[in-house]
Amino acid sequence: MGFLFTKEGTQRIVDTLNTAFNEKGLALIQQTASDPNTKLGALVRTRNWGSGQLALMLNLLPYDQSGHGDKIKKRHIQKWFYFLRKVLGGTSAFAPIRSALADAILKVDSSNNPLNIVRVSFNCVELPAKTNPNVVIFDAPLPGNASGGAVRQITLFTTYVGENDTVPYAPIDPNDQDPPNPDWKTSNPNDPDVSP
Predict the structure, then answer these.
(1) Which of 24, 140, 150, 174 is most solvent-facing, going by the fewest CB within 10 Å?
(2) Where does 59-183 have alpha helices with state H?
(3) Per-domain residue ranges for the chain?
């Protein structure tokens, strides 16, 4: 029922995250981040990355898994980074999500207690009433997993933007070109030197 009020663009974001952090994806991210001398390893260990930074480091972009074969347009990428930086990044929901992802990637919590998170799954429920983003995070044992691995579930609650509502994205040019200063681009020196 999570997608009852969820728009296509949000579902693409959820699809992307669920694919990136499934068993194989998370194992690859964990392996890549295991070296503290790499940019990713250092970033995750700080547990203090900026909104959009981890997505840039992992090159996570929205992907359409619906079977329609639609190409993701630049405006979808722009909305994805706007979502990360402005909708989620400036809210109280960002810090617990960042901490939950760092725990899963490092396989330890912030107190260095060992964890065996083998997958992170995501859902976003868009509520019809105007509300600030909220998040629920819990771990559940993975059925049939002899190693005792757990799935970390992250459910984000945001406001549904209806067809007649004003969408707070930067203006899009009719030819699908990037606007002069899109919100997903930044000159922040703390962001990695990576462009989507």
Answers:
(1) 174
(2) 74-82, 94-106
(3) 8-65+72-159
Q: Which helix (H) or strand (E) holds 81?
A: helix 74-82
70: its two tokens: 């639609």
CB 45 within 8 A of CB 106: yes
Q: What percent of the chain has pLDDT over 90?
A: 30
> Phi/psi of residue 140, each to 5°?
-130, 140
Give the whole-number percent of the chain exceeding pLDDT 70. Answer: 69
3-state SS class at 59: coil
Give the separation between CA 104 and CA 161, rounded to whole angstroms.
31
Token pair in block for residue 185: 């681009």
What distance in Å separates the CA atoms of residue 52 and residue 192, rounded to the nearest whole number? 10
Tokens of 88: 């989620």
131: Cα separation from own chain's centroid: 20
3-class DSSP assignment, residue 158 = strand
Query: How far apart, in whole angstroms, are the C-alpha atoms of residue 61 and residue 80?
Result: 7
Q: For residue 14, which of 94, 107, 100, 126 has the smallest C-alpha distance?
A: 126
